[in-house]
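FW: tagging you since you asked about this chain on Friday. Here's the raw sequence from the shared folder, copied in full. Didn't touch anything.
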Amino acid sequence: MDGVSVTIDITGLPHERITFCPSPLAELGNALHALAEPAHHARLHAWTTTTSAALGPELAERLLEADFMWRSTRSDFLMPARPRETLAEELDDLDRMDDEKFVGTALEISCSTNYYPKGLPSPLVDDWSRRRALDLAAARGPRQAAFVERMLADPTATRAWIRRLLEDCDQAFFADTWRRVRVQLTADAQHKTELLRRKGLAEALTAASPALSLEEDEHGRRIVVDKLLHGRTDARGTAVTLLPSIFGWPHLFTLYGPGWQPVIQYPVSTHEVGGTEPVETVKLRLDALTHPMRMNLCRNLARGAYTTNELADAYGITAPEVSRHLAVLKKAGLLITRRRGRYVLNQLDLSVVTRLGSDFLESVLR
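HL: got it, structure written out here
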């Protein structure tokens, strides 16, 4: 797990270049993801059920045709680095993006997470790159293959098709949704902006998400995003945008691809059980519970408090061996210990174990 995180180098970047601001396009992307993967978003069950039932069959079919752009991950163009007041303005900005960049992000999401060609010629002008893109898309599925073929044949028409789809979603359900959530998102962004101004970036990042932190050393300053992947990007000379989201939980998206200004989309804070532990802590707890003897010990420790010698007698092993297993559980934060005279009693922390499932789910969906 060493080095599991996304880091954004912000050395020398002034605070005014770090902005918190809601984005209607980003929130629409999250809403579409929630409709495509309602199991990820139990908190939105009422909204996803009602909205899905109200969708017209033609729009529902078009959404299914395009859902790979937001189902398992998020297409980069759905996370604007310069949020606008309205969806129409953000779609206008998208129209101004050159074909090369737009097609690149479309192919990255529909071909492979490692699509970025790294110096290869554009598939818009090179036959070998075109065949490569089509082969990668075919491996992902027929809808991706059809989309890439259409995109490469006529990027202008395909871009217009995507815009019409998003506009129709806005008319069908999102405009009303945005009116309801915009106030809360704006208030959250203003709160984080004020924290940044008064208490500094570290405080603002932590308030946005426990998975965000600031690292400072002799090598510079970095925003660190605690995720189950590794990535690096450089924001020096550009900016960093943080987008609050109501529909985004439990996901924490980071846009850090080549040629893109870094963007972090974070879920607005909630007070529900789970979803606050670092990835490394979740892994440590899962690893601690994989050993058969520690599982056996937990059977006793879940029912009451035991000394080391009592556990050793119960399982026919030595006290030092029990102590080693207890030390692993304690390091993972799974034990409660208390002293009774000259004896130390150990007991499983049931509240931590109860949260482990939701902490694991949030970590892998983050």
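FW: Strands lie at 5-9, 18-20, 212-217, 220-225, 230-234, 240-245, 253-255, 263-267, 335-340, 343-348.
HL: agreed, and Residues 345 and 351 are 18 Å apart (CA to CA).
FW: great, closing this out.
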